[in-house]
Write a structure and sequence with these properties.
CATH class of chain A: Mainly Alpha
Helix content of chain B: 25-40%
CATH topology of chain A: Formate dehydrogenase/DMSO reductase fold
Oligomer: heterodimer
Shape of chain A: globular
Shape of chain B: globular
Number of strands of chain A: 7
Strand content of chain B: 15-25%
Strand order of the largest sheet of chain A: 4-1-6-7
Number of strands of chain B: 10
Structural class of chain A: mainly alpha
Order of helices and strands of chain A: EHHHHHHHHEHHHHHEHEEHEE
CATH architecture of chain A: Up-down Bundle
CATH class of the largest domain in chain B: Alpha Beta
Largest interface: A-B, 56 and 62 residues
Largest sheet of chain A: 4 strands, mixed
Helix content of chain A: 55-70%
Radius of gyration of chain B: 18 Å
CATH topology of the largest domain in chain B: Alpha-Beta Plaits
Structural class of chain B: alpha+beta
Order of helices and strands of chain B: HHEHEEHEEHEEHHEHEE
Number of domains of chain A: 1
Radius of gyration of chain A: 22 Å
Strand content of chain A: 5-15%
Strand order of the largest sheet of chain B: 8-1-10-9
Number of helices of chain A: 15
Distance between the termini of chain A: 13 Å
Largest sheet of chain B: 4 strands, mixed
Chain lengths: 419, 251
């Protein structure tokens, strides 16, 4: 019988309070920037009439993806029977919840009228992905909370059912997020039926990367034993998801590049877009996908904690760039009134736009990450989120796993079929 | 049948009053609409307002339509090209990749599409189409998410990204500008409901080349219906299926 005991972290050390204070200070940047932007209007951002969406929307998409990925990671033990990931299930679910909260903060504070917070719940437009997502996101957030609650009370059956629902909803939530862009038929770089599935793939790869980073750092900081072979496994999993992302990216762009009407759009993205092209090849493909996949699949580096951590951080940064590459270039390109004619006007028609996030936008994005770290640090002290140790199980041992809370066996023995 | 613009907003106000966090203003005007009693009237589907713009008549360098629009609708210029609000602007166009290509000019605006992408993506249904085909925005409901600006193929929409001061010279027939929401051409709905033509059309006739004509697409005798019947009228990005109600001749 293997017992998994979840306990709170003590959180009395100076380092703990320092982390809490630092992340709290960073977190305060988010509401401060949002307030500043609301009081002064969006003119203090670098979002304009040609580039209506900027870094806040990039962050929203990124955080939603990481949340969906984390929730799937959390449910792997209860839903897919990967018992060895049970030690991470609580912190992954917590992370998923905090990330969706941060994502919703990003969206709402990006509105010109955040004071009209409740309006989307009273006026519905079924053809609008934003309208549908208002319900998907809020129900996803609520379900995440109930799922966590069920885990704390060791209600195995409920946890499994809720986990299954949560995975389904996570897929819907992130498909819906991809569809926001995929359905915009007038912009060649948005319009694609592959965006929803490729969003899911990137959610899984970045969610896994986040787990690798979060598990390693949290266990290390809390001084708990972590069998590194678990992270080797997670690294491999991340590598597989990265290959799926690469595949979608390849198919999408090859299909797009095939049609002459898209030569300009594809050229802007892949060949001569300057910053956009550099971000695509070096940021996303190189740093975000190919190198991390090579690192985790290479037997020499794939067994080294240093390289696995490096690969996970690169993948996390790479997916942030991927979100940027999806949201921004389509807006930077001018809209074509007549594909074979040049147009010009005082409203910047026919001109490529540029975008660099302003200081409030950056403060806002960094602040949201601070919110997640701050709440996570606080939560592991308040609730038993972390196991005393995370072991790599042999198949025979997997047959018998029980969850224990603060020294008291609280759950039934999980039986794995066939073991 | 005509709807006063203010009366119309009051009707919208009743609906908006149901929202918990909607600002207090619509709720108050909603009550006012109840007081108005029988005076409330709605747009009629008997008319389908449309416009035809003859590019051959558009005078090069002339900006009369845009100037008239700014005066009529109090549309400000901030001196910041990236954030200036444009309800109508003149566009120059020339053949790509050809030497000494002739440059032509025409006004571009909101085309009041039959299948408006902006309305389809609006999460709170703040963008709506009146029975007579005019696409409008309820600025008291708009949350400023700017999805419509991303979806509009014609760049017809502008975001009010700063507070705008009101002056005594403002035209009082149009609603006051509100920050943090998206706005666009209303086809001068307040004038149409008084039986007048949009300000740009009048200005083009009086100061420009008389290139713009406004009328009822349902009325066979109207100039716009005749132009559409001729088969010579084209619509911008007709391939998208948005079916604009503004047609061009000579493009």
């Amino acid at each position: 019988m293997i017992k998994i005991t979840f306990t709170k972290v003590e959180g009395r050390s100076g380092a703990y309070w320092l982390l809490l204070a630092l992340s709290g200070a960073v977190a305060s940047l988010a509401p401060l920037s949002a307030l500043y932007m609301f009081l002064n209007g969006h003119m203090v951002s670098n979002m304009t009439n040609q580039v209506p969406w900027g870094l806040p929307i990039v962050m929203a998409v990124y955080l939603i993806g990481a949340s969906a990925g984390s929730l799937v990671m959390s449910a792997t033990s209860s839903v897919f029977g990967k018992v060895e990931y049970k030690p991470f299930s609580r912190m992954a679910a917590l992370m998923a919840f905090l990330l969706i909260v941060a994502a919703l903060m990003a969206i709402i504070m990006d509105w010109g009228r955040p004071d009209r917070l409740m309006v989307p719940f009273f006026h519905i437009q079924p053809r609008s992905m934003f309208s549908l997502n208002a319900f998907l996101y809020s129900s996803y957030m609520a379900l995440g909370l109930v799922y966590l609650w069920a885990m704390f009370h060791n209600m195995k059956k409920l946890e499994r059912t809720l986990g299954l629902m949560a995975v389904g909803l996570a897929v819907l939530v992130h498909s819906g997020t991809g569809a926001i862009f995929g359905f915009v038929y007038v912009r060649e770089l948005y319009n694609s039926p592959l965006l929803p599935p490729s969003f899911i793939a990137a959610a899984l790869s970045s969610g896994t990367a986040l787990m690798i980073v979060a598990v390693y750092l949290t266990f290390k900081a809390a001084g708990r034993h972590l069998d590194e072979r678990l992270l080797h496994q997670l690294g491999n999993l991340m590598g597989v998801f990265i290959l799926v992302v690469l595949y979608f990216l390849f198919i999408e762009n090859v299909t797009r590049a095939y049609a002459p009407k898209n030569y300009e759009a594809v050229g802007f993205l892949l060949l001569h877009g300057g910053q956009v092209t550099n971000l695509f090849w070096f940021g996303l493909v190189g740093m975000g996908l190919v190198i991390p996949a090579a690192l985790v699949f290479n037997p020499l580096t794939g067994r080294s904690m240093l390289f696995i951590q490096l690969a996970a951080w690169m993948q996390l940064a790479g997916v942030l760039i991927e979100r940027y590459i999806i949201v921004m270039p389509a807006q930077l390109m001018p809209l074509e009134f007549f594909p074979d004619k040049e147009i010009a006007s005082v409203f910047n028609d026919g001109v490529y736009a540029t975008y660099t996030p302003s200081l409030p936008e950056l403060g806002y994005a960094v602040g949201l990450c601070g919110v997640v770290v701050f709440c996570f640090t606080l939560a592991v002290k308040l609730w038993p989120m972390l196991p005393t140790e995370a072991r790599h199980l042999h198949p025979v041992e997997e047959a018998q796993v029980a969850v224990e809370e603060d020294g008291e066996i609280a759950g039934r023995v999980i039986r794995v079929p066939g073991a | 049948m005509s709807v006063d613009r203010r009366e119309f907003l009051k009707i919208g106000g009743i609906a908006a009053a149901g929202s918990v966090a909607g600002s207090l203003l619509p709720a108050v005007t909603g009550l006012a609409a109840l007081d108005a009693g029988g005076n409330v009237s709605r747009a009629s589907g008997d008319h389908q307002w449309g416009m035809v713009i003859d590019v051959d008549k558009c005078t090069k360098g002339c900006d009369a339509c845009a100037d008239a629009c700014r005066t009529e609708n109090n549309v400000p210029l901030f001196g910041d090209p990236k954030r200036d609000i444009h309800w109508i602007r003149t566009i120059t166009v020339k053949q790509r990749g050809v030497e000494d290509a002739e440059e032509r000019q025409f006004p571009a605006m909101c085309y009041h599409c039959e299948n408006p992408p902006c309305q389809h993506v609006c999460p709170v249904a703040a963008t709506f189409t009146r029975a007579d085909g005019i696409v409008l925005i309820d600025k008291h409901r708009c949350i400023g998410c700017r999805y419509c600006m991303v979806a509009c193929p014609y760049k017809a929409r502008s975001f009010v990204s700063q507070h705008v001061a009101h002056t005594w010279d403002d035209n009082k027939d149009v609603p006051r500008r509100m920050h943090g929401v998206v706005e666009k051409c209303t086809l001068c709905v307040h004038r149409i409901d008084k039986g007048e033509e949009p300000a740009c059309v009048v200005a083009c006739r009086e100061k420009g080349g008389d290139a713009m004509s406004f009328g009822d697409l349902n009325d066979p005798a109207s100039a716009v219906a005749a132009a559409v019947r001729s088969g010579k009228a084209t619509r911008i990005r007709a391939d998208l299926g948005t079916n604009p109600r503004v047609f061009y001749l000579g493009l």
